[in-house]
Amino acid sequence: MIGADEGGEIREQVPVNRKAAEKMVRLHDAMKAVGYTGYPIEVYLVRLLFCLFAEDTGIFKPEQLSHFIKGDSSPNGHDLAEKLASLFQTLNTPPGRKLSILDESLAAFPYVNGELFAESLPMAAFSAEMRKALLDCGAFDRSKISPAIFGAMFQGVMDEKARHDLGAHYTSEKNILKLIRPLFRDALRAEFNAIFGLQGKAKGARLKAFHEKIAALTFLDPACGCGKFLLIAYRELYHLEMDVLEELHRDVPGQFLDVSQLCEVSVSQFHGIEIEPFAAEIAKVALWLMDHLCNMEEANRFGQYFDHIPIKDSPHIVYANALTTDWPRTDYILGNPPYWGFTWQSVEQKADMCKLFPKTKNLDFVCGWYKKASDLIQGTATQCAFVSTNSITQGEQVALLWPNLNVEIDFAYRTFKWHNEAKGNAAVHCVIIGFHARPFTTPTAWRFLQSISTAISSMPMMCMRQVPTSLLTNSYFA
């Protein structure tokens, strides 16, 4: 129903996500075992994953990839790598430049663009077992699978040491919505619902202005991993746009409403920074596919389907160290930065932290993101929210971190147990803290904590309910 608070119920992801991810992990392991490793295997798997989604979501024809593999490659798999290389090249070739004598099955694939298939990779090699493993990956209907599979696949591919070093834990959709809803989604929904209750010309004008507003909002995840926070944020914004368009054009019959000319929300509104190149590439592709899945929902709603293939709009995902690179200015900053305590940080990580906190040591790694965010948002209306270990709200971390920030807390969740979609859930207890810049003309709220730092450091825990109410402009305690 238009105007209703859609998505109020938070659902856990279905087990098929993990099963599909584990199929990709088996294929990765088989390719790695024959010597196809490093950066090439990462890009190769992202391309295959895109193609597997494409044949289930209308980008390709149903089972087009599976039929191509079965019909154009030999059962022993020895020519499969050559066939896939030709496929990747075709997906990167505009229609007017395709060779006229291509095999019919190959020529039938569309032009994708987006630079996903542009780079030349070393030739892979497949056996009969590896060919079967790839076909097994296509056995899942990915139109019913959440893009959460990207993060699950990434974590499964990484070995235990790499996972430890990168802090690569993947938050469940349930926990992502705990952050997204109070950060921006609930306020935008409330604003839309208020406009929905209006009558006459004023309603139309307000709806158009609101549509322009949400289409101009920008988002940054400065530790985006495989992009899950950005994916869910984009989906929520897209759903809101669909409600606005339906209400704006409710008197226009569906068959006459060209939604493709009305949609303004785009993946280009979303920015990410990620230190792991494989994850950064996955985040970009995941947002393209989320956009496509949203378009399929739109077709069911308005009776018209349009796709964004070839890809025209791209998210701004940067492969970089977030603590040493400049962040773009956006309306919202959100995410789940890595945690590591001071003892567990590498020499490079400690050096990065020292640049941000030259006079303070022993800070958790996540504190670097709070400091970068606090510095960036001064003098702006940007709102931020991070998932963090609860260590930053207890003991010595409170006195070390918060006096260095000039922020005001908007909402906070008390400690909750971490749940993620990986094969083994990370044993972490987290808090979520939302904040914005406090004007420099007002004494920093956290100086209160500085004055009682000795007392706080001796407390077993400083839970969020113990923050003075004057520091809070909202209350989202869970």
Polypeptide structure, described:
The chain is built from 17 helices and 7 strands. The protein is an alpha/beta fold. Among the domains are: 16-164; 337-471, no CATH class. α1 (16-33) runs parallel beside α7 (149-157). The longest helix is centred in the middle third of the chain and has 26 residues, at 277-302.
Write a short abstract of this structure:
The protein has helices spanning 16-33, 38-54, 64-72, 80-91, 104-107, 128-137, 149-157, 160-166, 173-196, 201-216, 228-248, 277-302, 347-356, 367-377, 396-401, 447-451, 453-457; strands spanning 219-221, 270-274, 316-319, 332-335, 383-389, 407-417, 429-437.
Strand neighbour order, sheet with most strands: 3-2-1-4-5-7-6
The radius of gyration is 24 Å
The total count of helices amounts to 17
Could you state the order of secondary-structure elements as H and E? HHHHHHHHHHEHEHEEHHEHEEHH
Structural class: alpha/beta
Euclidean distance between termini CA atoms: 28 Å
What helical percentage do the residues reach?
40-55%
Low-confidence stretches: 1-14, 441-478
